[in-house]
Design a protein that fits this description.
Dex49a from penicillium minioluteum complex, domain 1, 13-stranded parallel barrel, six-stranded mixed beta sheet, about 5% helix, globular
């Protein structure tokens, strides 16, 4: 929920960071010290050759690595904030203590209204409806869902929400992510709840609250817009409410802002390389259906919706992306912010977000059919995102054949609300399929909840896969920490950790306070792990000696 970032992050002491005249709203907070650091642990360490060692006591090297990763990535996020503050329309956080307000957006001509749900909102004496859009599933041979409905609005102050189920009968309702603790009431096929902070959520009606959910209902409850550019600014491509057919490969320019207003529906893909100071922002929609061929193979030749490379100081904020035939957002370079975007797409290769070095990926919602969040260019912070993973890909993809060394990633306070993985063997919540020459190192994953997922939790491997030329050589994966991870559902497939050979291994992995299906793992057998003894080293599975990890993942 965005309340965990956004205005909460504004309370930090800006002066203490030495940002001078930067406003508090421009500066995201540093990652706080995690509650699982320090203390005594019990568990098992697995070393190369099949040697095991008991763990019983403090783990200062793990705590020191976590502190180092947090320090380096905090500095990266501070640098991103400094650069973002120089942009004319780069502000991403609404000011604290905004007055009560509620803004809904008009339906563009030709938009498909949902036949599954309707939404009404009330704030004080103001009562209004919020248009509910619908997109149909596209890869119908493997997609278990039939469609997805969603609505988007912006607000400050408490809003009473009513979501009515128009088709079929329900017996109750709930809202995910669970850590948002949104209480619901149910009557007359309608789910009622109150929102007090921005959130990207799924509203689900019993008995259909576990995969496959045939007709998902999503709600993107945004903070009020800030830094809205005027249409008269010559450096702004201003796309107001209505349909805009711009076509494929719209070229971005340095020092340009693309503003997509709420109620705007844009048929376009945006691309650029070697750029600086670019902003894409608003509350509108980019739609990729106009280039969808209907073929998985042919779609691999289509462009992504936003494809930026070798660029500096890029902000992508607030927009919704639907029906991408390829990836949604790839923004590579340095000092990249991807904030509060929402993506719904169906085909394989529709990855959600890959941001470049020195990046912040925050408060986004991904419902895609390939890798959602890709910590593969560091340093970077990925926090407070919500993922609904379809059958392919992973919520967290650590490496896919990366060629240059990458390090320092802090991935925390994220929620996986569904993972529809059910038949593709390598799929997992945390995954690496690394066949590149790079060393991928220094990852800290913590405070992550996983709901309604039952395939596999970890799949961390080096491999000789069909997408890689082995003459380029192999790398390594090292220095990973997974702690305070919670899943209350059982996994039918074992977690796998393996290198490609004894010289190119997965090494120095700490799995700490990982709670799965009612148990806190402290051994490979206890957590259903398969650890290759010949291609891994120093793999630790442990839990806090005092109390285990029943509170893992809670926020």
């Amino acid at each position: 929920m965005q309340a965990r970032t956004g205005t909460i992050r504004l309370a930090m002491a800006v002066a203490a960071l030495g940002f001078g005249t930067l406003t508090a709203a421009a500066v995201p907070a540093q990652a706080a010290a995690r509650p699982t650091a320090g203390g005594d642990y019990v568990g098992t360490q697995y070393d190369q050759g099949g040697v095991t060692q008991p763990i019983n006591g403090p783990q200062p090297s793990v705590d020191a690595l976590a502190g180092n990763i947090t320090q380096v990535t905090n500095r990266a996020v501070q640098q991103v904030a400094r650069d973002r503050a120089q942009l004319p329309y780069g502000q991403i956080y609404a000011p604290a203590h905004e007055p009560e307000q509620l803004t809904t957006y008009p339906a563009p001509t030709g938009a498909t209204a949902s036949d599954q749900y309707s939404v009404s909102l009330q704030q004080g004496t103001q009562q209004t409806s919020s248009f509910v859009s619908k997109v149909d599933a596209r890869k119908t041979d493997t997609n278990e869902e039939l469609d997805t409905s969603w609505t988007s609005f912006s607000f400050a102050g408490p809003v009473r929400v009513a979501v009515q189920k128009l088709a079929g009968q329900a017996t109750g309702c709930l809202v995910r992510p669970a850590p948002d603790h949104i209480k619901t009431t149910f009557a007359n096929n309608t789910c009622y709840f109150t929102l007090t902070q921005p959130a990207n959520i799924s509203v689900e009606f019993a008995p259909d609250t576990t995969d496959p959910i045939l007709h998902p209902m999503l709600m993107f409850a945004n903070a009020p817009e800030t830094d809205v550019p005027p249409p008269s600014d010559p450096n702004v491509l201003y796309l107001g409410p209505g349909v805009h057919d711009l076509g494929a490969d719209v070229q971005l320019h340095s020092n340009e802002t693309v503003y997509i207003a709420g109620g705007a529906w844009v048929d376009a893909t945006f691309t650029g390389t070697g750029l600086h100071n670019v902003v894409i922002t608003g509350r509108g929609v980019i739609d990729g259906l106009f280039i969808d061929t209907g073929s998985q193979t042919e779609n691999k030749n289509q462009p992504g919706l936003i494809d930026i490379s070798d660029s500096h100081n890029v902000v992508i904020n607030g927009i919704t992306l639907v029906d991408a035939p390829r990836f949604n957002v790839r923004a590579l370079g340095t000092d990249i912010t991807v904030h509060d975007i929402k993506a719904i797409s169906w085909w394989y290769s529709t990855d959600c977000i890959w941001a470049g070095n020195d990046s912040l990926v925050e408060d986004n919602f991904c419902k895609v059919n390939d890798d959602s969040l890709k910590p593969m260019s560091g340093p970077g912070v990925i926090r407070d995102n919500v993922v609904w993973q379809l059958e392919n890909g992973a919520p967290f993809m650590i490496s896919w054949n990366i060629e240059t060394n990458q390090s320092y990633f802090h991935v925390y306070d994220n929620d996986v609300i569904h993972a529809e993985q059910y038949f593709l063997s390598p799929q997992a919540i945390f995954r690496a399929r690394h066949a590149g020459a790079a060393t991928m190192s220094k990852y800290l994953f913590e405070n992550i909840t996983v709901e309604d997922a039952n395939w596999r939790l970890f799949y961390i491997i080096l491999e000789d896969n069909k997408w890689y030329n082995p003459t380029l050589g192999y790398g390594q994966i090292s220095d990973l920490i997974f702690r305070n991870i919670r899943s209350d559902t059982p996994f039918t497939q074992p977690s796998v950790i393996a290198g490609v050979n004894p010289q190119h291994e997965v090494t120095d992995v700490a799995i700490s306070n990982v709670y799965m299906d009612g148990a806190c793992a402290d051994s490979a057998a206890d957590g259903n792990f398969q650890i290759d003894p010949s291609t891994t080293n120093q793999i630790s599975i442990m839990k806090s000696a005092a109390g285990g990890c029943q509170d893992a993942g809670t926020r």
